[in-house]
Amino acid sequence: MAEVIGGPEWPFDEVSGEEYARLSALYEPLTQAIRDLVDAGVRTGVDDETITRAREAIEAVTQTLSSRRHDRTHTLRHADTGRPLAWANPAVGLRNAIAPPMRIERDNGLWVSEFSLGAAYEGPPNLVHGGICALVLDHLLGEAASNGLTEPKFTGTITLRYLRGTPLGALRAEAWIDRTDGVKTFARGVLRDADGVTVEADGIFIRPSWARVAE
Amino acid sequence: MAEVIGGPEWPFDEVSGEEYARLSALYEPLTQAIRDLVDAGVRTGVDDETITRAREAIEAVTQTLSSRRHDRTHTLRHADTGRPLAWANPAVGLRNAIAPPMRIERDNGLWVSEFSLGAAYEGPPNLVHGGICALVLDHLLGEAASNGLTEPKFTGTITLRYLRGTPLGALRAEAWIDRTDGVKTFARGVLRDADGVTVEADGIFIRPSWARVAE
């Protein structure tokens, strides 16, 4: 029952479409501001005193935001779509500055996300860190295998083949279900830049036993 | 020549041990402050007006830090150890708030990192996102295969086997070289919580042709 990535058994509260729109309009600009700050932190070349003052200002904001906070993240399910919102998710979370964030669209059987990765995601010079490629592909294959996180599945195995370096900048990830065999769903995916595929991924996702018992 | 993760051909400037200590003392607290802000952004439950004011304060800090910045990250090599500092790296970077950060120690042939992952790294409730497990293991296997990023290697393939969910909190990752066969280095690793291994990883790393020609 480990690494479950979807399913109705999660303790979600529902949120209406209207409330979702309100919360998104509130949290997205905050998170984008923090994301821009992460990038500025990587790239800044200001003097020591300016850095010290910046740190103090950031600490003050953190204190304010922490005056009321959740011990753990609070996942909501969209009342209209049935999909979890995954606010805090480090790949797609609208409330997580670590996330690029990926926005995932469904195009027939294909799960697609287009996003841009900047300096904070760099491994080798000018290239995306291989582990970040793994993060986005793991997430997208999981979305495909779990039908957008609505069916409980856990990740069994994932294999990534790096065909060439993935440049920073505009990227596109795609994932789809290759086949299903009993409790196992085989998902595949690719990461692409403008010139074609840079990384291929194969994953095996498994329906947990408690979900099988419930059927 | 893609996905190169180490090697003397990188255009590094050297930094003395003394200057490294000074820069670390300056940047580490700034980055930790941003990291704490990322966590606060995920978890905050303050009212709408407070969020708007927080966003404005963050945008002001970003503007200050961006008044002088590098177009791309600037990798330095430690004069004493010969190792790149990887300030900006999203797994180990002391200047990257996305990074936990992993601090890597060498224990004979074992590469080890102990770190703690909080709410910003959560996938399923209370568990680390599978793609974050992939990020830390990809990075650590790469360190092992490239002898601490001092030998040029690129990642060919990496496979992750999720044995069970990885809980948020204190974790330990380990990696080692399993064997070498011509230009291929086979590295392995595990992610552990207090109860044992949660994820296993196998990677194949390849010495690039330009490094082979130079030998």
UniProtKB/TrEMBL annotation, chains A, B:
GO annotation (BP), single: fatty acid metabolic process
Record's catalysed reaction(s): dodecanoyl-CoA + H2O = dodecanoate + CoA + H(+); hexadecanoyl-CoA + H2O = hexadecanoate + CoA + H(+); (5Z,8Z,11Z,14Z)-eicosatetraenoyl-CoA + H2O = (5Z,8Z,11Z,14Z)-eicosatetraenoate + CoA + H(+); octanoyl-CoA + H2O = octanoate + CoA + H(+)
A GO MF label: hydrolase activity
The protein's Enzyme Commission number: 3.1.2.2
Top enzyme class: hydrolase
Compartments (UniProt record): Cell projection, Ruffle membrane; Cytoplasm; Membrane
Pfam families: 4HBT
Family: Belongs to the THEM4/THEM5 thioesterase family.
Protein name: Acyl-coenzyme A thioesterase THEM4
Organism listed in the record: Mycolicibacterium litorale
Species lineage: Bacteria, Bacillati, Actinomycetota, Actinomycetes, Mycobacteriales
